[in-house]
Each structure stands twice: as C-alpha cells, then as structure tokens.
Amino acid sequence: MIDNLVIVESPAKARTIEKFLGKEFQVKSSMGHIRDLSKKDLGIDIKSRYKPKYIIPDDKKKVVSELKKLVKEAKTVWLASDEDREGEAIAWHLCEALNLNKENTRRIVFHEITRNAITNAIKNHRGIDYNLVDAQQARRILDRLVGFELSPILWKKVKPALSAGRVQSVAVRLIVEREREILNFKYISYFKISAIFKVKDKNNRIYELKAEIQDKIESEKEVLELLEKFKIATFTITDITKKPSRKTPSPPFTTSTLQQEASRKLGFSVSQTMTIAQRLYEAGKITYMRTDSVNLSDTALHAVKEVVSREYGDKYLNIRKYKTKSKSAQEAHEAIRPAYPAKQTISGNNAEKKLYDLIWKRTIASQMSDALIEKTTVTIDISNANEKFLATGEILTFDGFLKLYIESTDDEVDENSKGLLPPLSVNDLLIPVTITATEKFTSHPPRYTEASLVKKLEELGIGRPSTYAPTISTIQQRGYVIKQDKAGYERKYILLELTDNNINKEVNTEYVGTVKAKLFPDNIGMIVNDFLVRYFSDILNYNFTATIEEEFDEIASGKKNWTDMIDRFYKQFHPKVVTTLTKSEPSKGDRHLGEDPETGKPVIVKMGRYGAMAQIGENTSKDNEEKPRFASLRKGQNMESITLEEALQLFSLPRNIGQFDGKDLIVSIGRFGPYIKHDSKFYSLKKGVDDPYSIDIERAVEIIKEKQEKDKNKIIKSFKEEPELMILNGRWGPYITYKKKNFRVPKKTDPNSLSYEDCIKIIKEVEERKKSPEK
DNA sequence: CAGTGAGCGAGCTTCCGCTTGACTT
Fold this sequence. Notes:
Elements: E1 2-8, H1 11-20, E2 25-29, E3 36-37, E4 44-45, E5 51-52, E6 54-55, H2 58-73, E7 74-79, H3 85-97, E8 105-107, H4 115-123, H5 130-157, H6 168-183, E9 189-200, E10 206-213, H7 220-231, E11 235-247, H8 255-266, H9 270-282, H10 298-312, H11 350-365, E12 371-382, E13 385-398, E14 429-441, H12 450-459, H13 468-477, E15 481-486, E16 489-499, E17 502-512, E18 515-521, H14 523-535, H15 537-540, H16 544-556, H17 562-583, E19 591-595, E20 602-608, E21 611-616, E22 629-632, H18 644-650, E23 655-660, E24 663-670, E25 673-678, E26 681-684, H19 697-712, E27 715-718, E28 725-730, E29 733-738, E30 741-744, H20 756-771
Parallel strand pairs: 1-2, 1-7, 7-8
Antiparallel strand pairs: 3-6, 4-5, 9-10, 9-14, 10-13, 11-12, 11-14, 12-13, 14-16, 15-18, 16-17, 19-20, 20-21, 21-22, 23-24, 24-25, 25-26, 27-28, 28-29, 29-30
Helix pairs in contact: 3-5, 5-16, 5-17, 6-13, 6-14, 8-11, 8-12, 9-11
This protein binds one DNA strand through strand 3, helix 2, helix 3, helix 5 and strand 24.
C-alpha cells in the first residue's frame, strides 16, 4: 500500500520530484497524453455534437496498465501534469482512463521543481478545470477535422499520401511565398560613396578618418558629377555629436530562441538541438527544453546572482524579470536554464558541452548589467554640394553582459563605423586621400532556415515548442520543402575612385549568393500550396491560428461552449470540402511551355506519379495517335521557371554517342543519376564533372576503363569451396560477401590471410550476435 | 539498382501536441 501516488508528464521530472517528497509519495509519469482520437477513422461523431472517440494508443497501453495497478494501491492520487491546456487535458484523460474517483483524486500544479513549490502545490490542491479541458478538446478536434478532411482531397486531386494541416500548410506557404518573392525580385543597383580623409590635430599629427555619404546615389552619371565637384571642394567638420546608448541582454532561452541561437552559433539543425537538449535534461543538467517561458524561478535567480557577484562583481549584476512577448505562450515551465547555474561546465560529449555552454552563458548574461556605449557622429560638409559625409565611432564605456555573451543575428552586420575616432574638433579641415564610389545592389529577402522558420511560426502563434522540430521534419518528409545549399554566382560591379584629382573607373567581379542549409520549396510543395490557398484561403491565412486561439481562450474562461464553436467552424468548412472534392479539377501544376519545333506538338510540364515531368504531345484515347513522350525533370529544376529549351533538352536522352569494342555507348539519367550503358553494364558519370548532354566518346571510354580497373582490384580473395563467398575491396575497406550479405573484416586483420574457415567463423559470429541482442 | 507516366480499382496514406525509447547503419 502506498499513501500517495503523484503522476507527472515526464519521467525525468518524476525522478527529481521523488527526491523532494518523502517515502509516503510515489511519483510516476504518464509520458505525455495517454489517450487520443481514434486513428482508424475520423475519430469524431459529427452527428452527436462532435463527440470524440478516444482510445488508448498501443504505445501507451503499458503505461496505463501500470498506472492502473498503482492507483488501486494508493490512498490519494495527485495529478501533477502541466498547468496549461494540454496538461489539464492529460489530467482529465487520466481520470477517465484510470477510473479515478473524485474523493481521493487531487489536481495540483507547480511551476518550478523545488521542495517549497511542491509542498505549496500540495497544500493548494484543486479539482479538474473542465473549461480548460474543453478548450483542449476543441483544439484537438479542430486540428483533426482540418487534417483529416483536407489531406484526402490532396490524395484525390494532387498526389497520394500527401498531407495538410493547420500548422504544416502555413509553414509551407511561408516558404513558397518567400521563394516567389525571390524569383520575382528585381535587383536595383546604386552607389555608395565613402572617403578616406587626412586630418591634422593641434600638434600637426596626422590622422586618417573614414566617412560615408548616407544617401544612395542612383546612377553612375550622378556619381561622376559629384566626383567632379569633389575635385575642387573643401571638406569641413561642422558637427560632432556624442550620444550614449545601451545594450540590454537577451532574455533566457525558450525552445524557439535556443533553436535559433544553436543554429547560428553552433550550426545545429532544429532536431539536433532538441535531441541534445533532451539528453542534458534527462541527465539533470538543464531544465525542461520544451517551453515558451522566459521566466526564471527565484531559486534560479538566487543561484545566478551568486555566480555573477562572485565572478564579475556586483557592478555587473542586474536581476531582471523578463516577460514573454509571444501572445500564444502558455508558460507551463521555466525558461531553459542550467539546473545548477553554479556549474559552468559539464561532462559529456562535445555537442552537449557546447549547447550547455550556450545555455549557461545566456542565462547568466540575462542577469547582468547593460553594456554602455558612446556613439560619436561627425558631420562633414562639402563646400560645393548638399551631400554630407558622416563618420561614426563607437566605444564601449562599460561592457556589462557583453563580457560573457553576444547574441548573433540573422542580418548582416554593418561593417562601417565602429571603433575609436581620432581626436577631432569642429571647423577642422579635411584633406581627401581617396573618395570611392562602389556600385551596390539591393538584395532579396533571405530564404528561411529551419530556425528562422521556427521564429516566424512562433511570431504568428502557430505551433508549440513540442511541435516545431516535428513540423519542420514533416514538411521535408512530404517533399514540400528541401533543405539544401545553393552555389553563388559572379556579379560585376563598378568602382569609381577619385585620387590625386584623377577619376579612375574599374569593373570588378564579386562572388555572391552562396547559401547553406536553406529551405527551398519543391514543385509538389508549390502545387499543394496553390491548391490549398485557392480553395481554403481561410485556413491558410496567417492569422487563422491566432483567431481560433482567441476562441479557445473564451472556452477556457467559460464564456463559450466548445461544441458551439466547433459547429460554427465545421458548418462553413465542410461544405468547402465537399465542393472542392466534386467540383475542382485535378491539380497537377500543368504549365504549357510552347511547341516542339520538330513535331509542332505542345510541350507541357506537370506533376506525375513519380514527380515533376515534361511531356510532348497530348494524352489521347485514340489508338492511331502516337503516345505522348515523357521525361522527368532533373533535381532542382523548377516547374515554374523551366523554359521550353530546358524542357526539350530533357528529351535528348538517352543519347547514343558512338561505339566502343563494337558495342553502343548509351548515355542517360537514371534514379541514381547520369550513367553510361555499355555492353549491358552501367557506369556512373562523375558528379559535377561530366554532363550527360555534352559528354563525348573519349571521356565515356575513360570512365569505363577507370571502373573496370577498379573492379579488377575489387576481388581480394575467392574460395574454391564456396563460389558465393568472396573477400572484396569496398568503399569502407575490405569485406566478406556471402549469399548477398556483407560482413566487415575485423580491424587490423590482413584480409589476404583469412582462410575459408576464418570467413565462415566471422559470418557465424555476426549472425549469432544479431539473433541475441545483449542486455 | 539503372524509369516509370493510359484507365480501372482495391487498399493504403493524413492532423497537432504531450511524452520517450525502439529502431538501423
């Protein structure tokens, strides 16, 4: 018999709490939700006021049966799930699934895991908040209705196995629209003029001063006119202004900001960050990693205060309470912080150490003083022009939190100004050394990274800390979005320089536009997005979630009935589903590119069963008509921007480029990339070196000979006893192959020394190990 | 391992949010 059973959501939390509570308390975890809507069908009885059909999923059956057993033995059950919509629903589902009775069941909540907080919570127990539960049910059911009614439309009208949902479809929309913005972006060039001046101080010491004209100059002609004027101009300092400013540290990490900083500073993907954070959490090194709160508990603040005072002195201490900006935040947890702020470093692997270091610094810095900066702006008048040169300098008068932590940004840094200015005074005369006009270009908005997409979603109030990483991976899995690098290109720019009264013009090249790990929409993502935006613009609206969240809040505060809300939504949503299913044309992204010059037949691109393709000729049912010809688009080719020429080129494969050893050489592109087929064998073309559309016979023969040479060295040893057993040289070193299965040759073993018996022994050992996994 | 794309129809796919392991290479 146990006196008290406490149920929390996570096992790591259960372990820590158990330490605080005495022997009379046993703490167990539910591992999140224990019931969900049935997955076999819609899981909602529309006709009976949207009655949900809840089941216990297979992977939760074990947890539930264990909890049931413990409940029977317990005098009192304490439901200690999180204090938000989902947490309240978990508590309620536990009541239902475990048949808890009101007399000995209590609902408690606590925001921090300290003895005080927990004993307080136990003193202030309450019952289940059914309004909050209803708000969760409304959220759950709306998401199910949207997801399970929209997805099948896509299967029918676009392609099987696609998906749509309140969160993922908007995430895809952001990426699609950003890409179109980039495709349609027109670069505008302009000029920026900067100068290096010489200036003398009272003691005739000479200093250099860099200054810039703030305004953009539109044309080269205007630049030349200005430079001509500068030849005879005098430059005078007319104003020196000093302005103090301050920088404030960023608040402690939430899931979203941790993902962003880990991406920028450490190059982690969103899911990498979460996996590493999970390990740190389970090891008791950080607090919970799925949170939207920037709040630190009093205990944490106290510990941070000690660290700052000890390490940097009280001058650097500034205890602050941060407030969340995000409206959607439910703040069931603390911010992400070190469990023990006094610990600056931890043991663990490299990634864990780095992420911990980031969290530690951010947490400590958040309680440190502002950095004080003095910014000086020097205005330089030009005697014969209205433009003004400005020189700016920045000095740090007090470093404050910057001693420890500098937040990075997605934006490019302003490389001008900064640093210390030479001693100057008003009316000083400046002698120009060189005045340079550089041609610049406006730049398109950046593509999203995983982390910047999370940031945007959070701003829109879409998704939750626990779903950011899964959402990002879903939209990639469905093929809507690809994370990839893109090579830059060379761009020419004009440089005009005025030195010693001579104007010199140069045209230089710069390499721009290289991007890494950015999110690009794929063809199917664009087609699905356009379809959904066309027929379900309300759900694809960026404000849809924010609007329904307000209604969920009203349900939570008891002002609204959840079935009424869902009913109103469904009555306008479902008819659209029906009409779209019956009336809309299949949407394959068809685009007519022009006519094939050889046959005069139309050339189109569309989405086929196996991806984007080009087609010459129409589909006809008549037997006498020729079947259309098909060719897949190549990776990275965009249905929206592909030209007729590019599409026609796809049909030039397979290409017969001649003969070698009396057999044809056929070049084509297969599932694994471009290849040469010769004597019914396949030879891959080298990535980035060979082009299947232009490769010639000499190079093809070279590739074939190279491969044959390699294959010759492939067999290290074969055996008379068993022709199916061989030792081969592979990509990762020697290996044994036997009946189509491969086995690694143990390290530090000379493969030539292995006998037939040795090989059989190795194979048997591996097979044995597979059958009986240790532990 | 080295393209496929007609049309028919069976049977499959799918959401968001809360949580961990269980898997494979």
